[in-house]
Each structure stands twice: as C-alpha cells, then as structure tokens.
Design goal:
Blueprint: E1 3-8, H1 18-25, E2 29-35, H2 48-67, E3 72-75, H3 79-90, E4 92-98, H4 103-118, E5 122-126, H5 148-158, H6 185-189, H7 203-206, H8 211-223, H9 229-232, H10 245-249, H11 255-264, H12 272-294, H13 319-327, H14 333-345, H15 350-363, H16 368-378, H17 384-395, H18 410-417, H19 422-427, H20 436-439, H21 446-452, H22 464-480
Parallel strand pairs: 1-2, 1-4, 2-3, 4-5
Helix pairs in contact: 3-4, 5-12, 12-17, 14-15, 15-17, 16-17
Site (Electron transfer via tryptophanyl radical): 312, 368, 391
EC number: 4.1.99.3
InterPro entries: Crypto/Photolyase_FAD-like_sf, Crypto/Photolyase_N_sf, Cryptochr/Photolyase_FAD-bd, Cryptochrome/DNA_photolyase_1, DNA_photolyase_1_CS_C, DNA_photolyase_N, Rossmann-like_a/b/a_fold
C-alpha cells in the first residue's frame, strides 16, 4: 500500500478530518506528521497560553492515534524541508493537509505545495476549519464584505452540510523507517511547549484540550445553555456560552459538526431562535477570517484609515496604566475581574472582553494593538482573525465596527450583566464583603471601601467621565479633519 503524509497543524482531530479522509479514500496508508516551525508564523507565532494548549492537544491527539494503532511523527525543521525529506524516507507519494488562513500561513503553504510538487509528490489541501472559505463569499460587485449582516446572509445561503465522518477503527502503524525518538509523547514533550512554571494550572480546571474535551463541551452546551443562549450569553457569572473557541481554533472539532449537532438536537420550536443566535456567532468567526484574508494588513493596522491619525495616548507616558490593565489592578472592578480571569484561566467571557477592550481603547485611549498583543499571549483561544476583528470592532477602527462614540461604561455594564456581583467577587476577592451598592464603583462609596475593602484603590487609574469626554473630543477632531 502506498503512503501519504497527513500534515497536522490546527486540525488536531480524527473525526471530520478532510485531509485524512482524502488519504484513505485514495487508498493510501496515512502517516501523521506535525512539523514544529513557529518561526513560519511570522510576527504571530503562538503566544504562551496557546503553546501550553498546543502541547496538551498534541498529546491528546497522539493518545487518540494510539487507540487506532497509529502514532504522530514530530519534526522540527522548515516545513518544506521536513515534509520532502520524510516523504522521500518513507516512500510517500502524496502529502495532504487542511488549510490555514493567516497571511503568513498562506504564503508558507504555497511554498510548501510548490516544493512538494517539484519533488514529484501529489500535494493537496482541504477546508477543515470553516463553514465557508473566504473567497467563496463576495458582494454583487465581486469584492469582499465589510459589514457582517449582508455577509452572513450571503454565507448562510452557501452553507453545505458536510456529512459527519468517522475514521476507521484501525489505522496503519508507522513504517520501520520512522525511528522511535521521532514520534510519541516523548517527541511532543521535547518541543518544550509547556511553561517553565505551572502558571497555567488554572487553565486545565476549566478546559480539557483535545478532541474528547471538545465533544464533551459540545454535549454539555446542547444539554444546558444552548436553549437559552441569547438570554444567558452576556452574563459572565454563569456558563451561558459554549466555551468551544479554543477547541475550534486548534481544530479539535469541526464547525459543521457543531452546527449539525445543534440542528439534530431536537430543541423545542421556541428555543430555535436561541440556537440560531449561537450559529450566527459562529458566523462572526467566519466573517473574521473573511476580513483577514481580504485585508491581511489589518492584523497590525487599522482597517479604517481615518484612525491612522487618531490622537491616541502615548504608550510610554501611560506605561503604568497599561501595566495596571494587564495585571487587573485598574481599580475598576469589572475590568480587573476580567483581566484576572484571563490570567488565571486563559479565557475571558466575551461580554467582559468588550468591556476591558473599550476601557483600554476609549478610557485609557491606548492603541488597540497593545490589547491585541496581550490577548494573543494570554488567551488559549488566541486566533489572529478573531482577535484582530474583535479589537478593531471595539476600538471603532475596523469593519462593521461599533461607532467610536459607543464607549462602554464599566460601572453600568457590570450592574447590568453581573447583577448579583458573583463574577466580580469571584475574581476580585478583596471586594467580597462590599454591599452591592458599592461593588461596581467603590470610589463612590469611600466609607464602605475603607471599612470592607481597604486594600482596593481609592480611585481608578483614570476618571471614567473625564476620559470618556476626552475620547469623544479626540474622535470629533478626527472626523473634523476629514
């Protein structure tokens, strides 16, 4: 039987894996290979939290392969060199992989495909990550969309229903040409992806990286929050969202399996709008990839050029405020709760992500890129497309963005969405004894703060009202100059 390499990247699953399926249907014995080459990600090599997740996800994938009689080959080299060399050594006739859509990955994959074909190998890539690929959706004029609603209306009409695919119970073992040190858990652990200190310990109390963890979370979501998603998704004190984002990023579950499972779940008619609301959120993920593909410079630059001349605060002069934001000690309870949740769990509730992003870009008036970089390093679901789109949306600089004059008030947001104060008290235990009336803005209740939360700052790092007015004034100067 001929061999085909199945190049594993962010598709760490066996079920619904188009590259694996293609290899088997072509009659090849698949050899699974992961090439560790973070330098090929350009300026966006995985951050610390992503590396920690990747290490565990690779181990989970290896364990799944072993259950099926196979194992994962692990190499460290330039991808084209590693794949060409391995193919020659094992006599492979083809290399299959599932596509990545970041600018650096696209450039790298083109180079790999050319190199492999020059070597006489069949080289094919597949869609293993998206419901609709970026080039499939275009306006009537043939261009990309910059507004979500018409994009999703068009994309929804293009959605195929890929059948769920289950791999065979047994997969071929590795050929003898693969040495023992090149595969298995030791080869993965040798990559050194985990942190030197166990600062990530809190991540794994909330998440289980790997295909099994993704399926378990999806089942829990369907049985629990999915039927009331629109009502619960904005409440950070409860499990009202799926928390599948890191599993989607690492390809531990296919998005179409999620959609299919939701549609097959048999929700009552009255709950269907709730489920559709969640599927629409998956649409935002698709929109983010659409934008990054068509506007690759937006990972670092404003999509809306108007903001290239915006009066942002000087980062050096406000370094202390930026550090306070990063460390969750701004003195604004909901902001600090969110940043501490991020640090301790590698994840943050989406409503709170918008609040902390608004605080950074509007109240502190620091460039959104500072926040995007911090999230990139600390989120286990750090995805370049989603991260870029989310930050540009909140900053008002991107496609379909929130108007710049929409400034989240962290006090009223907290009172509205953390009505019992459970979320703030969990992540800011210094405030646990404050009564609700003082919890959201302790600086307005000085006697209570001194008595029940003496370690909490007397004032936040910035005056919310004054900073809002300065942000609006800066916005008005920007619009007046155009």
């Amino acid at each position: 039987m001929s061999h085909a390499l199945v190049w594993i990247r962010r598709d760490l699953r066996l079920a619904d894996n188009p590259a694996l399926r293609a290899a088997l249907e072509a009659g090849h014995a698949p050899i699974f290979v992961y090439v560790h080459a973070p330098q090929e990600e350009g300026d966006w090599s995985p951050g610390a939290a992503s590396r920690a997740w990747l290490g565990r996800s690779l181990l989970a994938f290896e364990s799944r392969l072993v259950e099926h009689g196979a194992s994962l080959v692990v190499l460290e080299a330039a991808s084209d060199d590693a794949l060409a060399s391995l193919a020659a050594r094992v006599g492979a006739v083809a290399v299959y992989w599932n596509r990545c859509y970041e600018p650096a990955s696209i450039a790298r994959d083109k180079q790999v495909k050319m190199r492999l074909r020059d070597e006489g190998l069949e080289a094919r890539s597949f869609n293993g990550a998206l419901l609709v690929e970026p080039w499939q959706v275009h306006t009537g004029e043939g261009g990309p969309y910059r507004v979500f609603t018409p994009f999703w209306r068009k994309a929804s009409g293009l959605l195929a229903d890929p059948a769920r695919w289950t791999p065979p119970a047994r997969l071929p073992a590795l050929p003898d040409a693969i040495s023992g040190h090149e595969h298995g858990p030791r080869a993965i652990e040798a990559l050194g992806l985990g942190p030197r200190l166990d600062w990530d310990a809190g991540f794994w109390k909330r998440f289980e990286p790997g295909e099994a963890g993704a399926v378990e979370l999806l089942d829990a979501f369907i049985e629990g929050a999915a039927g009331s998603y629109l009502e619960q998704r904005n409440l950070p004190d409860r499990a009202g969202t799926s928390r599948l984002s890191p599993h989607l990023h690492f390809g531990e579950i296919a998005p179409w399996r999620i959609v299919d499972a939701l549609r097959r779940a048999g929700f009552p008619k009255g709950a269907q709008p709730q489920v559709d609301g969640y599927i629409r959120e998956l649409g935002w993920r698709e929109f983010s990839h659409h934008l990054l593909f068509h506007y690759p410079d937006t990972a670092t630059g404003n999509l809306n050029p108007r903001f290239n001349d915006f009066d942002w605060s000087d980062a050096k002069e406000h370094a202390a405020a930026l550090e306070a934001w990063q460390q969750g000690r701004t003195g604004v309870p909901i902001v600090d709760a969110g940043m501490r949740e991020l640090w301790q769990t590698g994840w943050m509730h989406n409503r709170v992500r918008m609040i902390v992003a608004s605080f950074l870009t509007k109240n502190l008036r620091l460039r959104w890129q500072h926040g995007a970089r911090w999230f990139w390093d600390t989120l286990v679901d750090a995805d370049l497309a989603n991260n870029t789109q989310g930050w540009q949306w909140t900053a008002g600089t991107g496609a379909d963005a929130a108007p710049y004059f929409r400034i989240f008030n962290p006090v009223t947001q907290a009172a509205r969405f953390d009505t019992r104060g459970t979320y703030i008290r969990r992540w800011c235990p210094e405030l646990a004894d404050l009564p609700d009336k003082a919890l959201y803005a302790p600086w307005e209740h000085e006697d209570e703060r001194k008595l029940r939360a003496p370690s909490w700052p007397a004032q936040p790092v910035v005056d919310l009202k004054a900073s809002r007015e300065k942000a609006l004034a800066a916005y008005q100067r920007t619009t007046a100059s155009r």
